Amino acid sequence: MTRVDLSDIHKNILNDSLLRLKGLLRAESASLFLLDGEREELVLNAIFNEQKTQFKGVRQRLGEGIAGSVATQGQAVLVKNIKTDPRFSPRAFRHYHTDSFICVPIVTSLGPIGVISISDKDSGEAFTEDDLRLVCLIAQLASRIVEDQKNMIQLKEENESLKSERTLNRQEQAFLEKFASMGKLAGGIVHEINNPLDAVMRYTNMLIERDLDKSVSGEYLNEIKIGLTRILKITRSLREFSQQLNDNRYQDLVDIHDAVEEALSLFRHNLFGGKIEIEKTFDFGLPKVIDKGLCRVFSNIVKNAIDAMPEGGSLAITTSQDEEFISICFRDTGSGVPDDVKERIFTPFFTTKPIGQGIGLGLPICFEVIQRYGGRIDLESSPGKGSRFTVRLPIKSAFPTVKN
Predict the structure, then answer these.
(1) Which of 10, 203, 211, 278 is the most exposed place for a label (fewest CB within 10 A)?
(2) Same domain? 378 vs 260
(3) Residue 313, beta-bridge partner list
(4) Phi, psi of 324 (to 5 degrees)
(5) pLDDT digits over 204-222, tens only?
(6) Distance, CA of 103 to CA of 82 (rounded, Å)
(7) Model confidence pLDDT, tens digit, residues 233-279
(8) CATH code of the domain containing 364
(9) Greatest extent of the chain over all pairs of C-alpha atoms, in Å
(10) Helices 294-307, 362-373: inter-axial angle, 10-degree rounding
(11) In a domain, 238, yes or no
(12) Cβ atoms of residues 113 and 164 within 8 Å
C-alpha cells in the first residue's frame, strides 16, 4: 500500500476539522485514525470525547474491525443500531459502547490515508443519511488538502531545476493562496450550517420544554422548517460544488450558443414575461468546445443578472473570437456591484442576497469551471450602471486533444 507522509501542520488541520465536525453533529465522541503504510496498520492520532480519555497511539490492523475494514474497502459505513444491524455479529462487537456511529475513509489518488469515526449523538438519536453525507464531504475536503501537499512536493521538485528564484517564489505563493482558500471553504461550511442548525435546536427545545398554545407552536415549527430548508439548500449546493471540483471526465463537445440558449431556457418564466429584454449578438463561426460545465457558468451569470433587475431591464449577450480567445459577454442594466463587493464575488459562501435566497457558491463554481479551461471570468460594474461579465476561453485549451 502506498505511503503518504503527513506533516504536523496537516495533522493539526485534520484534527481541527474533526473537532468542528463533532460539534456540528452534536456527537459525544470523534476520532481520527491515520494509516501507517509500512506496517499496514491504522494508528489513532486523535480522539475527542466527553470523558477526555487518552488513547493516542492505539493501533488497528487493516481489514480488522470496523475502522480497518472501512480503510481497506474505501466505503463509508453508517450504523443506526449495531444491535439490529445484520452486518455485525453481536458477539464480535459487544465491546462497542455505542449503538449508532459513522465511519468514513479519507482517500486520495494515492489510496487511503486514514479513517474518521463519529459516535453517540448527545440527543441519543441515531445518525442519519444527511449526517453521513456531511462527514463524507468533510473527509473529501481533507483528502484535497493532502492532494495539495503532494502537488506542492511535485512543484518544489520541478522548480529545483529553475534558475530564477523569482519564478519559484511566485509559484509557491500561488500554492499558499490555494491552500488558504481551502481553509476558508472548510470554515465557511461550518459557519453556514451552524447558523440555521442553532435556530432549529433553539425552537425545538422551546417546543419540548414549554407548554405552548397551538398558534405559537405553529410559528416555532415554521421556523424549524425554514432552518432545515436552509440546511438542505446548503448541502445540495455543496454537493454540486464538490462534484464540480472532482469531475475530470470531459468527453462531449458543446456549441457555445446552445449552452447559452439552454441557460436562458432555465429562466424562461423570468425572461419571457416582458420585463427583461434579451439582446443576442452571436458569432456563429465559433467552433464547438469541450464541455466542462459551460451551461452551469452561463446559468449562474444569467440568474445574477435577473436578480439585479427586479423591475425589469435588458440583458445583452455577445459572442466573439480572436486569435487567442473565445469571448462570451453578458451585460445587464441592473443595480451594479460596488467595488468592495467585486473583490469578494468569487469567494465561497460570500453573498449579498438575503438569508434563504443565496448560498454564495454560484460564482465560485463559475470560477472553478473557467479555471479548468485556463481561462478568465471578469466583471466590470459600478452601482447604478449595470454589470458586464466576460468569459474568455483560450482557444488552445478549449478543444479536445486528438489521439493517434
Answers:
(1) 211
(2) yes
(3) 276
(4) -110, -35
(5) 888 887 777 878 888 888 8
(6) 13
(7) 667 666 665 555 555 555 578 899 999 998 888 887 766 566 888 89
(8) 3.30.565.10
(9) 76
(10) 140
(11) no
(12) no
